[in-house]
Design goal:
The structure holds 2 protein chains of 2 kinds. Chain A is mostly helical. Helices cover about 80% and strands about 0% of the residues of chain A. In chain B, helix 4 runs antiparallel to helix 5. Classes of the chains: A mainly alpha, B alpha/beta. At the A-B interface, helix 1 and helix 5 of A face helix 2 and helix 3 of B.
Chain lengths: ~270, ~300
């Protein structure tokens, strides 16, 4: 693959997915939008916000982190499955992919490119949504609450965002695995709706095998310690074994996609 | 396959040997041996479903043969498909393009894939085809889509151009321009063209060689001139009694009129006339034959042969 081909393919991917990417990024902030709407529409919520202080701001940030994480590994992953199907399924479904097959470029390179671009798009959207949610919550409190200041709640914000960063790693790895599974199905079945169903089934399967641990982490994160704060220690611990397993599963799913793609014919 | 032509063996752009393809139990292509000499225009003629597109897709590496082999420009297809695609242009029947791109974007995008891209040629073709650069592909007419595909195929100076039903869906004016002008010009540049069509007139107008296909088999391959000199129609009055001519050498088809019979004969010559005379045929008139007559005769004769098995 020459530099010109890479540039051309990147340009094509960007043009094809830029609005979808934006919509996807926004969709991953649904909890934040719901919170924002609540504050905007309910006077009591506004009153609570105005009454916040620096010490309570830490708890609000913790709740924001937990709420966003729960959203991501439940509804968020189903959203991701839809996005992943679109990353190649539509091009196979409407057969525009065959335009590339007619060019002097290897099939596995085309698929690797599509996979890599889609994986970067999905995992960054998923992972960064935790950090942006925390940052937005922090700024909103500092702007609206009478007794919350940027400097005063900075320590709490740094503590929780550091847990958020580790949570980002977790959710990105989980997202990569779900993306890879859905990608395989969309290469396999071509029709996007079949791939969505298959992706959803794989998602349920993933929860069956990994779900217990995932919810443990979240529940532990929401467990209050003796001082009355939320205990984020377990949530923020980067356990290498499940992360490695999920990365290996993702790699396996990717190579399975390559295998299926190599046998695909232009009927 | 029956071939009436002695090819120069070292000068093939495309060679297939015993090429076959099955879809489940259905045999779409049956052991086809096809050779396309370099620098010629080869028309693959057959009704819809004859197996033309399947052969072309196998030649282009988009379908895997269930039997046989393909060589393109001297290379086995399995050797290096990317190297082959650098030298071969393919325009599929469905004319795959990215609908959201503009004409100009399609050209720029495709340019990146070909080191041999000729900007001047692309600009010339854009002007000649009157393609609007800012218009999106989804807004183009069928004719303009076909022209854009051809522009993309020709602008990197391929040695071999494979066109699958290039005129399907086009109006007669565009179709004639496509066949008479464009394909002829490509051929004049010394490039090899393989194109498929179910329209006999198109093949007759522009092809040097014709291959007639039916039900997955290549029935006949030859030059247009040789076919026409080899095949004749013979007409004679029957005067109430029809002579039995089915055993006459080369008779492919018998058409019965009220007062006459018309035979289509392959390999027409003195022997044909002698055998007809022995069967009581008097004053036979030898008529010129069109490619369409030959096509219909070849297909009917083959179908009758299959039915009799």
């Amino acid at each position: 693959m020459t530099k010109e081909i890479v540039k051309a393919m990147l340009w094509k991917e960007w043009r094809e997915t830029r609005w979808k990417w934006l919509a996807f990024a926004l969709a991953f902030h649904i909890p934040l939008f719901i919170a924002g709407l609540t504050v905007a529409l309910r006077a009591s919520a506004r009153f609570d916000l105005y009454a916040l202080s620096d010490s309570v701001a830490a708890q609000v940030l913790e709740v924001a982190l937990v709420a966003q994480s729960v959203f991501l590994i439940t509804a968020g992953l189903f959203l991701l499955a839809f996005f992943a199907v679109g990353s190649i399924g539509s091009e196979l479904d409407n057969r525009s992919m065959f335009f590339l097959f007619e060019r002097p470029v290897r099939r596995w390179q085309v698929l690797l490119f599509k996979y890599a671009v889609g994986a970067v798009q999905t995992t960054t959207c998923v992972g960064l949504s935790i950090l942006t949610t925390l940052a937005a919550t922090y700024l909103l409190m500092a702007a609206a609450a009478t007794n919350v200041t940027l400097a005063g709640s900075w320590g709490s914000f740094v503590l929780i965002i550091s847990n958020g960063v580790r949570g980002t790693v977790w959710t990105m790895v989980i997202a990569l695995m779900v993306y890879s599974a859905t990608f395989l199905f969309s290469v396999w079945f071509e029709k996007w709706w079949i791939a969505v169903i298959a992706g959803a089934v794989s998602l349920v399967g993933m929860f069956y095998y990994f779900g217990g641990n995932l919810f443990d982490w979240i529940i532990s994160a929401a467990t209050r310690n003796k001082s009355g704060d939320v205990n984020l220690d377990l949530y923020g611990r980067l356990d290498p074994v499940p992360i490695l397993v999920m990365l290996l599963v993702s790699a396996g799913l990717y190579f399975a996609s390559q295998y299926v793609f190599a046998w695909k014919e232009m009927k | 396959m029956s071939s009436n032509v002695e090819y120069m063996p070292e000068e093939y752009a495309i060679e297939t040997r015993n090429l076959g393809r099955k879809f489940g139990k259905f045999e779409a292509v049956k052991g086809v041996d096809l050779t396309v000499p370099k620098g010629t225009v080869f028309g693959l003629l057959g009704v819809n479903g004859a197996g033309k597109s399947t052969i072309i897709k196998m030649i282009m590496g988009h379908l895997r043969p269930t039997s046989g082999e393909v060589r393109i420009l001297g290379r086995a297809l399995g050797e290096d498909l990317v190297e082959i695609r650098k030298r071969v242009a393919y325009v599929s029947e469905n004319r795959y393009l990215y609908e959201w791109m503009t004409v100009a974007e399609s050209i720029t995008f495709t340019r990146a894939f070909h080191a041999t891209w000729d900007d001047r040629k692309a600009a010339d073709l854009l002007k000649r085809f009157s393609l609007p650069p800012e218009k999106k592909v989804r807004q183009l007419s069928r004719g303009n889509r076909a022209r854009l595909c051809l522009l993309l195929a020709l602008s990197f100076n391929p040695e071999l151009i494979v066109l699958d039903e290039p005129t399907s869906g086009l109006d007669p004016i565009v179709r004639r321009d496509f066949i008479e002008n464009i394909v002829s010009e490509i051929a004049e540049e010394g490039k090899t063209v393989l194109f498929s069509s179910h329209i006999v007139e198109e093949v007759e107008r522009v092809a040097d060689y014709v291959g007639i296909m039916d039900e997955g088999e290549l029935l006949l391959v030859s030059t247009i001139d040789e076919i026409k000199s080899s095949y004749k129609r013979v007409r004679y009055a029957t005067n109430g009694t029809r002579p039995e001519v089915t055993g006459v050498v080369g008779v492919m088809m018998v058409e019965n009129g009220r007062h006459e019979q018309v035979l289509t004969v392959q390999g027409f010559g003195d022997e044909t006339m002698r055998q007809l005379g022995e069967r009581g045929v008097k004053n036979p008139e030898v008529l010129p034959i069109s490619l369409e007559d030959i096509f219909v005769s070849a297909v009917r004769a083959e179908r009758e042969r299959r039915a009799s098995l």
